Amino acid sequence: MVMVNGEQETGVVGETILDFLKKREAPIENIVVEQNGKIIHRADFDTTKISENDKLELISFVGGG
């Protein structure tokens, strides 16, 4: 089981962060990913894998005024 922003997510163990974000159609250039309390650098999205019992927090930035 993987928790994403406090909700259970299934079928993502073994995926890279990049693949996971693409599947969700997340704005990769405007997102911060925290995995188990550690911020993952965007350059590492394609090599960092999601493991069983991971806790991910996805934070998107939007402009406005």
UniProtKB/TrEMBL annotation:
The protein's name in its UniProt record: Thiamine biosynthesis protein ThiS
InterPro entries for this protein: Beta-grasp_dom_sf, Mopterin_synth/thiamin_S_b, Thi_S, ThiS/MoaD-like
Pfam families per UniProt: ThiS
Residue ranges that the Swiss-Prot or TrEMBL entry lists as coiled coil: none
PANTHER family the record matches: SULFUR CARRIER PROTEIN THIS
